[in-house]
Amino acid sequence: MQCPACSTENPAGATFCQNCGASLSAAPPPPSGGFTQVPQPATTPAAAGYAPAQSGGLSDNSAAAIAYITIIPAIIFLVMEPYNRKPFVRYHAMQCIGLHVLWLAVWLVLMVLGIMLAMVHLHMLVLLLWPICWIGLVVLWLLCIVSAAQGKWFKLPIIGDFARKQAGA
Predict the structure, then answer these.
(1) Stated pTM of the model
(2) What is the residue range of 19's domain?
């Protein structure tokens, strides 16, 4: 059987052309350039069963979780519309900033303590405190990210109260 679209000979009983893939029963004539174009069905998003995505940006949970990644997204969400008007995102962005301030304070205390203990040859104590403090802060940070992604108002002691007052929540 010969394909009406590309004129290729196909075995008997075939329903589609082995060369161009056109239907052997009702294929259109080939275009003048020798290329075949398979027509796409004209469907609208509603006919296909889904609605077009709205360009509303991130969800509140996503924005709150992203705010914890570094201090930069937290600051961006505090100044960028529409996130700076959402109490949930503002709360987590402020708590992230508070957590970073705590992280810096712990680092400074351990540095000063390390210098002071090095003078009396006890600097090994600080080497034991570094990993303990670091693991504790990382666990707090991960708890904040996960709870923000789940939509929970996870509150860190002292920092959470400050963040709630600043966010107006």
Answers:
(1) 0.59
(2) 1-31
